[in-house]
Each structure stands twice: as structure tokens, then as C-alpha cells.
Design goal:
Rossmann fold, 34% helix, two-stranded antiparallel ribbon, eight-stranded mixed sheet, 322 residues, alpha/beta
């Protein structure tokens, strides 16, 4: 079992057949969908703090800065960006919920801390949530792609085995750490409209929670997320109405979906396209010609999804080479 020298325990409860659910802000988290899903679970399930991972060894504080807060006595207090863990009652089993910023340093050591906590409580499976940018319209149901390396999990939950090769984020590294520790892991990815990357997506968060509920075979709360979907759609509608180039772009991808019997399922290789999402601005990580900006109209020709995927993969490989 891994040494947990960087884990600060808040409590050490007895847990019943727990699963672990994790999400990290940053490149894995387009439109804050994954982190919003996990934050929703913490709040809606009245989760109780379990532990924290000391951020000192893993965080670049010049990139993810601590905050100054005033406490009740008016004194200044530094709040550090910390990966936190909670426990929640999910019926006949418990959940360990993990949420925090993607680490900048010592990823292998960081993942040992996560896996070590899971081993301490004999967690059977770690489910990581992520979100990526894709050519999908916001008014259609959110597609969720599930991947795993364990064939039993693939068969049981109708998942896929990822064939992706290239740069990866912390979700990919954590999955590899689970595999090396002989622990089952699953990754769920929600597809977020690329043209609405700057708007937090409760719709994608809801889809992730619903798919997670199916995999865990537990009834997870969704009401508060579902209540915000209509306002999200309206907000994106307004964004599109103010930009004719986005209107044309949306019409094209909707027509593409109609031609394919409304199938907007994204490619298997999208498992690790979390590198498209930048910590500060999701759009900034896209190739310049693919960014939907007011002063850069999208091309009027038809969009070839295979060509777009090839271009994205080439962009990722060029970033790796650089």
C-alpha cells in the first residue's frame, strides 16, 4: 500500500463497499462540467469531509493562486487550492468523493496518494469524470463517453477501451496508476459544445451524474442540476443570436447530426482530448482557426468531422513535440 505522507486525515470512518468518484479542474474540465458534477454531489448528498492532500508538493501557486479571505473576526486568512475528499451515503454503499485542481507537479506521487486512500478503504473502482470540447449542439442531449481498461467493467457497463495515443492529463495518469495497482478504473467524458466553452454547463454535469448513477447502480440526486438546464440553453441561445458566424456553425453541425439519424456520438479517440481545455480559457487551447470568436468567422464550407479530428490530433502532437 502506498505511503500517504501527503494526506491529512480529517476523520477515519468505517465505510461500506465504497466507490471513489473524482474530478479535477483544469484541462480535464471543459465548461466546468466535471467539477460541477462532483461539487453538486458533495452539496446535494451532504457529504462529510474525509481528508485533504497537502498542495505544497503538487501545486504551482503562480498558476493556481491561493486566496485571501476575512474570517468572522475580520482577520486575514489564506485559503490554499487543495484537493479535498469527502464521504457520502449512497444507499447500501458509500462514496469517497475527490475534487480539486489538477496538480502541476509530481503527478505519479500525487496519484499514489489518491490510490493509497482508495486502497485503505478497499475501494473496488475509481470513476473519474471529465469533459471535453466537441462539435455538438447545445440543444441536443449531452453525449457521455465511458472508457475502461478492465474488460469485465467494459462488458458490465457498456464502456469502450480507449485506443488514444498522445498527451494526457491527470485523469489519464490516475487511470494508469489504478491499473498498476490492480484496481479497476472508469473514465466518463461529457461532450461540451465548443462554441459555448466559456459558459459553465450544468447540462453536461447532469449527464455525467446520470451516467455515474447507472454505473454505480445507486440513485444519485439530480434535481437541482436539472432545474438549471433550461436557463443554460437560453444563455447559449443568446450567445449564438449575437454572433451570425456561430448561427451558421450551429446550423451546419445540427444538419450533420440530422444526416446521421441524430447520432452525435464522438470518436473513441476523444478519451484524452482533455488537453483541449486550458486552465484559464478553454477556447485558447483550440487551434486558432477553430476558435469561435467574434472577429474570426467560421468557414462557410461543410465541416468534415474526420478531418477535424485529424487536425486536433495533429495539434496535440505538435504541442507534445514542442
Amino acid at each position: 500500500m502506498a505511503e500517504l505522507e501527503h494526506v491529512r486525515w480529517i476523520r477515519r470512518p468505517e465505510l461500506r463497499r465504497p466507490y471513489m468518484v473524482s474530478a479535477f479542474t483544469g484541462w480535464n474540465d471543459a465548461a466546468d462540467a466535471a467539477s460541477s458534477a462532483v461539487k453538486h454531489l458533495v452539496e446535494a448528498m451532504n457529504a462529510t469531509p474525509l481528508a485533504e492532500i497537502d498542495p505544497e508538493e503538487f501545486t504551482d501557486f503562480a498558476t493556481i493562486r491561493p486566496h485571501v479571505r476575512l474570517n468572522d473576526g475580520g482577520n486575514r486568512q489564506i485559503v490554499w487550492p487543495t484537493v479535498s475528499m469527502w464521504t457520502a451515503d449512497a444507499g447500501d454503499r458509500d462514496l469517497i468523493i475527490v475534487l480539486g485542481p489538477e496538480p502541476a507537479l509530481q503527478w505519479k506521487l500525487f496519484c499514489k496518494q489518491i490510490v493509497g486512500v482508495a486502497q485503505t478503504y478497499k475501494v473496488s473502482t475509481i470513476v473519474s469524470l471529465g469533459a471535453l470540447l466537441a462539435d455538438v449542439p447545445h440543444r441536443r442531449p449531452t453525449q457521455v463517453l465511458g472508457t475502461a481498461a478492465d474488460q469485465a467493467a467494459i462488458d458490465r457497463h457498456d464502456l469502450r477501451r480507449s485506443q488514444y495515443e498522445g498527451p494526457t492529463g491527470i485523469v489519464g495518469v490516475l487511470s494508469d496508476a489504478c491499473h498498476r495497482a490492480s484496481m479497476s478504473s472508469i473514465s466518463l467524458w461529457g461532450a461540451v459544445p465548443a462554441y459555448a466553452a466559456q459558459i459553465a454547463s450544468p447540462k453536461a454535469a447532469l449527464a455525467l451524474v446520470e451516467r455515474l448513477s447507472e454505473i454505480l447502480d445507486v440513485d444519485l440526486p439530480t434535481v437541482s442540476l436539472a432545474e438549471t438546464v433550461e436557463s443554460y440553453d437560453a444563455q447559449v441561445d443568446q450567445l449564438i443570436a449575437n454572433d451570425p458566424s456561430l448561427t451558421r456553425y450551429l446550423e451546419r453541425i445540427e444538419a450533420m447530426g440530422d444526416d446521421d439519424d441524430d447520432d452525435y456520438e464522438f470518436d473513441d479517440d476523444d478519451d484524452d482530448i482533455e488537453l483541449l481545455i486550458d486552465d484559464e480559457d478553454s477556447e485558447s487551447a483550440l487551434p486558432p482557426d477553430d476558435r469561435p470568436r467574434d472577429d474570426t468567422p467560421l468557414p462557410d464550407g461543410p465541416v468534415d468531422s474526420d478531418a477535424l479530428m485529424a487536425e486536433v490530433e495533429q495539434f496535440l502532437r505538435s504541442q507534445r513535440d514542442d
